[in-house]
Every structure is written in structure tokens, then in C-alpha cells.
Amino acid sequence: MTDTRYLVHGVFWDGPPALSAASDGGRPVLRLQHLSGGFTEMTLDAGTRLGFRVADGAKHCLGHTRVFSAAERRHFPCPDSAGAVRGSQCETCQLADDTRLIHDFHRGGRVPAGLRDYLMQPHWLYVATFANGASKIGTASQPRKWNRLAEQGAVVARYVALAGDGRVVRILEDLATGELGFAQQVRGAAKAAALTDPGPGVELDLLNRRRAEDVRTLLARTAVGGFAVVDEQWIRPAQAAPLCAGAARHAYPHGMVGGSHGFTLGALCGSHGLARLDGSELDFVVNLGLLKGRLVEPGEYSSQVPAVQEALF
Ligand SMILES: [Zn+2]
User: Fold this and answer.
1) Each residue of 171-186: pLDDT tens digit?
2) C-alpha to C-alpha distance for 27 and 23, rounded to whole angstroms
3) Among 169, 202, 267, 270, whose Cα sits 20 to 30 Å from the Cα of 116?
4) What value, to the nearest 5°, has the Cα angle with vertex 293 and ends 148 and 190?
5) How far is the CA of 89 from the centre of ligand 1 (A)?
6) 294 alpha carbon – ligand 1 mean position (Å)
7) Could you tell me the distance, in angstroms and rounded to a whole number, from the CA of residue 282 to the centre of ligand 1?
8) Cα–ligand 1 centroid distance for 11 (angstroms)
9) CA of 189 to the centre of ligand 1 (A)
10) 289 in Cβ contact with 11 (< 8 Å)
């Protein structure tokens, strides 16, 4: 009998950027790994039907990545089919993963030649603001300039600097974090919660503009070289617009550690979907990022509608 279970790697936005706020971009997919090796993808366009059963309660190791050059990297499945102990990896895969060294490179850490090649390409520094007004500072390599922000689920974002390489950009990132009190991470759970009651678009844009200006002002007087200050707005993909607009909606009522799930996707912001359940007129925000490392079995399933819908209001 063929195994119909897949290991979820997460939501990826690897397609071409949105060209205007009215255009879709990134061709988002849920990436699934066959247990026999190889990958398949489920597109996450508006109107997509997602149905699956979470096959066990465990979180599985997603393997590791080797970086061979700026353009070439390769994924290796977990040799032991182990459970994930930290993040989405077992200890062996975590140690074998080249990308874990990225964060120490600008502090003088040694890196393999392929990763060095990747890190020495131009990188962008950005300020992203999420639906609750929380802002973070972050970096994106030149080829991932747009996609990185789409994956993050930013509601508004601006690029503030273009650095000659990935070392300089992380020095700038640390500088802004220390001087201006930025977060470098906003947790997925916080992003999902924020999308159930997003702030007004005009306010979020103003907030982002101010935070971006703060960074530019800081960068204008730093002694660090090797970068140019820029002022460029990130274009949010049209798929995210319905989620970023204020509306009555609720957190998805089921956990992702088990059970069966099925719903129609109405919009997507980062890895957060707007889910319409069968037999309900309500919209729910579902964090598809929670499926990362889970073993799922696709099928014709339907999520249970919460018994007393009124109680949600
Ligand atoms: Zn592993």
C-alpha cells in the first residue's frame, strides 16, 4: 500500500513579486515532503480547498540545508526520521545545517565557502509592521528581497538600506535593534492573533513610515560603511489584502497537533490563511505555519464548526 502521508515543510512564497498592490505575487504553496523523498506542493490561491488529517501528535525533523553558492542550496531529509527537538530539526540535522552559521558571520564566525558566497551578495535591510502595529527590523538577500517580506506576513514594510553584503547588513540590523529597541522576531502566534483584529491600514502605514525614518536617521550618522540608505516601499501581494483589512473574524478554533481539518482559503498573509468553514458564514484566521514538521494525510475532510458560534462574539 502506498503511504499517503506527507511531512509539512511550511508555506513558501518563492514566485515572482507582486508588481502592484492589485496583483497577486509569490505563488504561495504549502510544501510537502513525501516520506519516500521528493516534494510536492499545494497551491494556496484564494478559493483553494485544503483538507487533511494530522497523522500523529509528533513534530518531525525537516532535515537540513547545505549552501553551495549564492544561487545553489540543497535540502537533505533527516537521515534518522527523527523527531524535532529544537525548532523543526533534530540535533544531528541542526549541526549539519549551514544556515545556522549565518547569524554569527558578522561577529567573525567561520563559514564554509558556499555559505560565504551566499552571504557576500548584496542584502536589504527592512522595517516590517504587522497587523497589531508591532514592527521588526530584518534582512533579505538580493534574490529574496520581495519574497522574504511576503513570507513574514508583513502588513506594511519599507526598505531602509541596501548593504554590499550580508555581513554589513547584520551589523546595521544589530545597530538598529540596540539603538531603537526593535524586535528581530515577531512570533507567528502574535501575527495570527493580530490578524483577527488588524489595525487600520492608514495607521499601520504611518507607524511603519516613522519607524523606517528613525532607522534612516540612525544610519545617516553611523561610521559603518558599505551600504546606501534607501527609501522604498514593499508591495504587499493582493492575496493578503482581505486579511489585512479590518473585519469581524476569529481565531481558528482547532489545534494543529491532531485531528482532521478542511476549509476553503479566502486569502493568505505570510503563513496565515483566512479560512471559511463549511456550514458557517464566519471567517477564521488559521496559522498554517503550525503545520511545519507535522505529518499529514490529505483527504476530503471538513473542520468542525464551533458549537455555539455566538459565544465567539
Ligand atoms: Zn534530523
Assistant:
1) 999 999 999 999 888 8
2) 11
3) 270
4) 55
5) 5
6) 14
7) 39
8) 20
9) 25
10) yes
Tens of pLDDT, residue by residue over 213-267, are: 999 999 999 999 999 999 999 999 999 999 999 887 899 999 999 999 999 999 9
For residue 154, give the C-alpha cell: 508583513
**pLDDT one-digit tens code per residue, 8-30:** 999 999 999 999 999 999 999 99
Taking the whole predicted model, whether its pTM rises above 0.85 is answered as yes
CA 8 / ligand 1 centre spacing (Å): 14
Ligand 1 centre to CA of 171 (Å) is 31
d(CA 164, ligand 1 centre) in Å: 34
Closest to 192 in 3D by CA, of 268, 281, 84: 268
Mean pLDDT of the region 31-37: 89
User: What percent of the chain is modeled with pLDDT above 90?
Assistant: 83
How remote is the CA of residue 292 from the centroid of ligand 1, in Å? 14
Q: The C-alpha cell of 171 is what?
A: 551589523
Distances (CA, A) of 288 to 60, 158, 198, 285: 16, 25, 18, 9
Which CA distances in Å does 216 have to 31, 175, 250, 305? 37, 12, 37, 48
Q: Residue 168 is placed in which grid cell?
A: 554589513
**Rounded CA separation 110/194 (Å):** 39
Q: What's the gap in Å between 92 CA and the centre of ligand 1?
A: 6
